[in-house]
Amino acid sequence: MLKKILLGCGVLIGAVVVVTILGLVYIGTMTPGTAVQPGEKVRKSFVAEMRELGVLEPDEELRYFYSDGLLSLREGCYVLTDRALVVFVEEEIDPPMRLLFDQILRIECTYSDEFLYDSSVFVHYADEESEDEELASWVYVPLSTERGGDRRFLEALSASTGVEVESVDEGEAWWEEE
Fold this sequence. Notes:
Layout: H1 2-30, E1 37-38, H2 44-53, E2 62-67, E3 77-81, E4 84-89, E5 93-100, E6 104-110, E7 119-125, E8 137-143, H3 149-161, E9 165-167
Parallel strand pairs: 6-9
Antiparallel strand pairs: 1-2, 2-3, 3-4, 4-5, 6-7, 7-8
């Protein structure tokens, strides 16, 4: 009887271990990852999905990609192309928000020094209502600090737009005022 109980427990523990390993393999191979990726390193399946969602236009060159989604890029997708900054969050920003470089007026960033926290970027842009920088609309773009990806993404955005990235200390940002 004791042997059957131990065998049953062993089988149960083994099944849990196998399911856990398969789950980790899935997360490691099928999800967007945790770092900002240069365009040439992004999986073809993600590029195809971004084209299908309208994040990337057919003839657009992908320069940088970041997703803060756990299981899907649809949960949050931030893309720099040769023509635009594109933000897509299926539950909030759908269709994708496409900011052409000449629309971008100001870029502010609170850089994170911690691995687990993304840098917070606010991109101010001209829209149909106003081209005045003080009245401009803005969009939030989180960027992973892993391997300096946030800084590379912002350097490329700054070079493309001609707009310098303003570093804002935590606690001093306009969006943190009470």
